[in-house]
Design a protein that fits this description.
The protein is α/β, with parallel strands linked by helices and 191 residues long. The protein has 9 helices and 8 strands. The protein has helices spanning 3-18, 37-54, 63-67, 108-119, 131-135, 137-143, 153-156, 158-163, 182-190; strands spanning 28-33, 58-62, 77-85, 88-95, 98-107, 125-129, 147-151, 168-169. The strands form 2 sheets. It has a 5-stranded mixed beta sheet with strand order 5-4-3-6-7. The protein has a 3-stranded mixed beta sheet with strand order 1-2-8. Strand 1, helix 2 (37-54) and strand 2 form a beta-alpha-beta unit. The protein is globular and about 55 Å long. The two termini are 31 Å apart.
Length: 191
Protein backbone atom coordinates (compact mmCIF):
# COMPACT_ATOMS: atom_id res chain seq x y z
CA UNK A 1 0.00 0.00 0.00
CA UNK A 2 2.97 2.34 0.34
CA UNK A 3 5.11 1.36 -2.68
CA UNK A 4 5.09 4.87 -4.07
CA UNK A 5 6.53 6.16 -0.79
CA UNK A 6 9.24 3.57 -0.13
CA UNK A 7 10.14 2.37 -3.63
CA UNK A 8 12.79 4.96 -4.46
CA UNK A 9 14.39 4.65 -1.01
CA UNK A 10 14.56 0.87 -1.49
CA UNK A 11 16.15 1.28 -4.93
CA UNK A 12 18.75 3.72 -3.58
CA UNK A 13 19.50 1.40 -0.63
CA UNK A 14 19.86 -1.61 -2.94
CA UNK A 15 22.25 0.26 -5.24
CA UNK A 16 24.32 1.48 -2.27
CA UNK A 17 24.55 -1.96 -0.67
CA UNK A 18 25.60 -3.59 -3.97
CA UNK A 19 27.84 -0.65 -4.97
CA UNK A 20 26.18 -0.44 -8.38
CA UNK A 21 25.81 2.90 -10.18
CA UNK A 22 22.91 3.72 -12.49
CA UNK A 23 25.23 4.29 -15.43
CA UNK A 24 26.37 0.65 -15.21
CA UNK A 25 22.84 -0.79 -15.44
CA UNK A 26 22.22 -2.40 -18.84
CA UNK A 27 18.46 -3.11 -18.58
CA UNK A 28 15.56 -2.49 -16.21
CA UNK A 29 13.07 -5.33 -15.76
CA UNK A 30 9.58 -4.57 -14.49
CA UNK A 31 6.40 -6.56 -14.03
CA UNK A 32 3.78 -5.56 -16.58
CA UNK A 33 1.02 -7.49 -14.81
CA UNK A 34 -1.36 -8.95 -14.23
CA UNK A 35 -1.83 -7.79 -10.66
CA UNK A 36 -2.69 -4.70 -8.68
CA UNK A 37 -3.57 -1.77 -10.96
CA UNK A 38 -1.83 0.69 -8.68
CA UNK A 39 1.20 -1.55 -8.16
CA UNK A 40 1.65 -2.11 -11.89
CA UNK A 41 1.30 1.60 -12.65
CA UNK A 42 3.78 2.59 -9.94
CA UNK A 43 6.30 -0.05 -11.06
CA UNK A 44 6.11 0.86 -14.75
CA UNK A 45 6.18 4.61 -14.06
CA UNK A 46 9.24 4.13 -11.86
CA UNK A 47 10.99 2.03 -14.52
CA UNK A 48 10.28 4.66 -17.16
CA UNK A 49 11.41 7.46 -14.86
CA UNK A 50 14.70 5.68 -14.15
CA UNK A 51 15.33 4.63 -17.75
CA UNK A 52 14.97 8.03 -19.44
CA UNK A 53 17.91 9.96 -17.93
CA UNK A 54 20.31 7.05 -18.42
CA UNK A 55 18.79 5.74 -21.68
CA UNK A 56 18.40 2.25 -20.17
CA UNK A 57 16.09 -0.13 -22.06
CA UNK A 58 13.10 -1.61 -20.21
CA UNK A 59 12.04 -5.25 -20.38
CA UNK A 60 8.42 -5.93 -19.41
CA UNK A 61 7.89 -9.32 -17.73
CA UNK A 62 4.57 -11.13 -17.31
CA UNK A 63 4.12 -11.69 -13.56
CA UNK A 64 2.49 -15.10 -14.02
CA UNK A 65 5.43 -16.28 -16.15
CA UNK A 66 7.85 -15.30 -13.39
CA UNK A 67 6.23 -17.56 -10.77
CA UNK A 68 7.00 -20.60 -12.97
CA UNK A 69 10.71 -19.82 -13.12
CA UNK A 70 11.98 -22.53 -10.79
CA UNK A 71 9.45 -25.28 -11.48
CA UNK A 72 11.49 -27.94 -13.23
CA UNK A 73 8.86 -30.69 -13.56
CA UNK A 74 8.31 -31.00 -17.32
CA UNK A 75 5.84 -33.86 -16.93
CA UNK A 76 3.28 -31.81 -14.99
CA UNK A 77 1.09 -28.90 -15.86
CA UNK A 78 1.82 -25.64 -14.05
CA UNK A 79 -0.96 -23.24 -13.14
CA UNK A 80 0.38 -19.84 -12.10
CA UNK A 81 -2.03 -17.56 -10.26
CA UNK A 82 -2.48 -14.26 -8.47
CA UNK A 83 -5.49 -13.42 -6.29
CA UNK A 84 -7.87 -11.14 -8.20
CA UNK A 85 -10.24 -10.90 -5.17
CA UNK A 86 -13.82 -12.20 -4.76
CA UNK A 87 -12.84 -15.86 -5.34
CA UNK A 88 -11.18 -15.00 -8.67
CA UNK A 89 -7.59 -15.42 -9.82
CA UNK A 90 -5.50 -14.21 -12.71
CA UNK A 91 -4.00 -17.39 -14.13
CA UNK A 92 -2.00 -18.97 -16.92
CA UNK A 93 -1.28 -22.63 -17.62
CA UNK A 94 2.05 -24.07 -18.78
CA UNK A 95 3.38 -27.41 -19.97
CA UNK A 96 7.09 -28.06 -20.52
CA UNK A 97 7.87 -24.35 -20.01
CA UNK A 98 5.42 -23.38 -22.78
CA UNK A 99 2.36 -21.25 -22.02
CA UNK A 100 -0.68 -23.20 -23.23
CA UNK A 101 -3.41 -20.99 -21.70
CA UNK A 102 -2.72 -17.27 -21.87
CA UNK A 103 -3.44 -14.92 -18.96
CA UNK A 104 -7.12 -15.01 -17.99
CA UNK A 105 -9.24 -14.35 -14.93
CA UNK A 106 -11.33 -17.20 -13.57
CA UNK A 107 -13.40 -18.07 -10.50
CA UNK A 108 -11.50 -20.58 -8.32
CA UNK A 109 -14.58 -22.78 -7.88
CA UNK A 110 -15.13 -22.86 -11.65
CA UNK A 111 -11.45 -23.72 -12.12
CA UNK A 112 -11.75 -26.60 -9.64
CA UNK A 113 -14.88 -27.85 -11.42
CA UNK A 114 -13.25 -27.74 -14.87
CA UNK A 115 -10.05 -29.45 -13.72
CA UNK A 116 -12.07 -32.20 -11.99
CA UNK A 117 -14.30 -32.63 -15.05
CA UNK A 118 -11.40 -33.06 -17.47
CA UNK A 119 -8.63 -34.64 -15.35
CA UNK A 120 -10.13 -36.59 -12.41
CA UNK A 121 -9.55 -39.96 -14.15
CA UNK A 122 -6.07 -39.01 -15.26
CA UNK A 123 -2.56 -39.41 -13.87
CA UNK A 124 -1.85 -35.80 -14.82
CA UNK A 125 -0.28 -33.75 -12.03
CA UNK A 126 -0.84 -30.02 -11.64
CA UNK A 127 1.62 -27.73 -9.86
CA UNK A 128 -0.04 -24.58 -8.53
CA UNK A 129 2.34 -21.62 -8.11
CA UNK A 130 2.09 -17.96 -7.14
CA UNK A 131 0.33 -16.09 -4.35
CA UNK A 132 -3.14 -17.00 -5.65
CA UNK A 133 -2.32 -20.70 -5.20
CA UNK A 134 -1.40 -20.04 -1.58
CA UNK A 135 -4.38 -17.74 -0.94
CA UNK A 136 -6.84 -20.37 -2.22
CA UNK A 137 -5.05 -23.54 -1.15
CA UNK A 138 -7.91 -24.50 1.21
CA UNK A 139 -10.42 -24.18 -1.63
CA UNK A 140 -8.30 -26.40 -3.88
CA UNK A 141 -7.67 -28.89 -1.07
CA UNK A 142 -11.42 -29.17 -0.42
CA UNK A 143 -12.65 -29.17 -4.02
CA UNK A 144 -10.02 -30.76 -6.25
CA UNK A 145 -10.14 -34.49 -7.01
CA UNK A 146 -7.05 -34.41 -9.20
CA UNK A 147 -3.36 -34.89 -8.47
CA UNK A 148 -1.94 -31.50 -7.53
CA UNK A 149 0.70 -29.73 -5.44
CA UNK A 150 0.79 -26.18 -4.10
CA UNK A 151 4.38 -24.96 -4.54
CA UNK A 152 4.68 -22.18 -1.99
CA UNK A 153 8.42 -21.49 -2.46
CA UNK A 154 7.87 -20.12 -5.98
CA UNK A 155 6.03 -17.15 -4.47
CA UNK A 156 8.72 -16.27 -1.93
CA UNK A 157 11.29 -15.42 -4.60
CA UNK A 158 9.05 -13.40 -6.91
CA UNK A 159 11.46 -10.48 -7.40
CA UNK A 160 14.40 -12.74 -8.27
CA UNK A 161 12.11 -14.83 -10.48
CA UNK A 162 11.21 -11.64 -12.34
CA UNK A 163 14.88 -10.85 -12.95
CA UNK A 164 15.53 -14.22 -14.57
CA UNK A 165 12.32 -14.50 -16.60
CA UNK A 166 12.33 -13.48 -20.24
CA UNK A 167 10.10 -10.56 -21.08
CA UNK A 168 9.68 -8.15 -23.97
CA UNK A 169 11.92 -5.16 -24.43
CA UNK A 170 9.97 -2.13 -25.57
CA UNK A 171 10.25 1.65 -25.78
CA UNK A 172 6.47 1.84 -25.22
CA UNK A 173 4.93 0.57 -21.98
CA UNK A 174 3.44 -2.92 -22.07
CA UNK A 175 0.63 -3.26 -19.54
CA UNK A 176 -1.25 -6.50 -18.94
CA UNK A 177 -4.27 -5.67 -16.78
CA UNK A 178 -6.50 -8.50 -18.17
CA UNK A 179 -9.53 -6.76 -16.63
CA UNK A 180 -10.18 -3.02 -16.81
CA UNK A 181 -9.89 -1.07 -13.57
CA UNK A 182 -13.05 -0.34 -11.60
CA UNK A 183 -12.79 3.37 -12.46
CA UNK A 184 -12.42 2.53 -16.16
CA UNK A 185 -15.44 0.18 -16.09
CA UNK A 186 -17.55 2.83 -14.32
CA UNK A 187 -16.47 5.50 -16.81
CA UNK A 188 -17.28 3.26 -19.79
CA UNK A 189 -20.69 2.39 -18.31
CA UNK A 190 -21.59 6.10 -18.19
CA UNK A 191 -20.44 6.87 -21.75
Amino acid sequence: LNHSIVLFDNIVDALKSTKICFDSIKIIKVSCGPGSFTGIRIGIATAIGLSIPYDIPIEYVDTLDSFCRYVSDNESYIISMIDAKNDRVYMSMYKSEKKIIDDITVNVHDLSYLLNKHFSNSNTVFNFVGPGAIDYKNVFKAELNIKHKILSKSYKYSSSNLCYTNGKESKNPIINYIVSSKAEREYNAKH
